[in-house]
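Running low. Got one?
___
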Amino acid sequence: MDKHILIVAGGKGVRMKSEVPKQFVELNCKPILMHTIDAFSANSLVDQITLVIPNGYMSFWKELCEKHHFHATLNIIEGGPQRYHSVKRGLSMIPNNALVAIHDAVRPFITKELLNTGFEIAIKKGNAIPAIAINESIREVSGSLSKAADRNVFKIVQTPQFFHASLIKKAYLQPFNKRFTDDATILEASGQQIYLFDGAPSNIKITSPEDLKLAELFVNIN
C-alpha cells in the first residue's frame, strides 16, 4: 500500500500571538511548517505528501518557499473553516487504497521510528494512534469544584495518526461535530476500534511562545 502524509496547516494559531499563523512562524530561521515537511521528505517510506494550508494563504506560502529556497514536492490544497473541513478536503486527494498519516503542521520533531511503527500497525489493524503517558497529577474540574483523577487511565494523544484511507474517508462522511478534535475521535464515532501505540515525548505541538522556546532548544541539541 502506498503511504501518504496529510499535513494539516489550516489553523490561525491565536495562542502563538504572532502576526502570521503559527505554522509560518520561524524556528531556527525557517518556518515551522518547512521543518515538518522536511522530516517526512527525508523518510524513504513516504510516497506522497499533501499539504492543507489556510484559505487565502496560497500566495503567501509560495513567497515563503521562494524566500527560503524551499522546493519540496507536494500536493497543496486550501483548507476550510475548521480542522475537520481542512482534513476532509485533504483526504479528497488521497487514494482509497492507500495508507494515510494525518499530521499537525506544528509538530516538526516526528521521528523515523514513530512513523515506521505507525504505518506497520495501521497496515495490520486499520489505524494506529500515538499516545504518551501523563506524568503530572491531574484533576477533574466542574465549575469552581475539582477532584483528583487517575492519570493512569488517560493518555495524551499525538499525531501523526495513521489510517487505511478508505476507513477514515468513510468516517469523514459524518457531519461535523464540535467534539471532533482529532481524527481518531471521528473514526471512533463511525464505529471503529482505536489502536494506540507509544508516541514520543519529543513530538511536541508548537502552539505558544513557550512551546517555541522549547522547540528552539530541541533544534540546538540536534
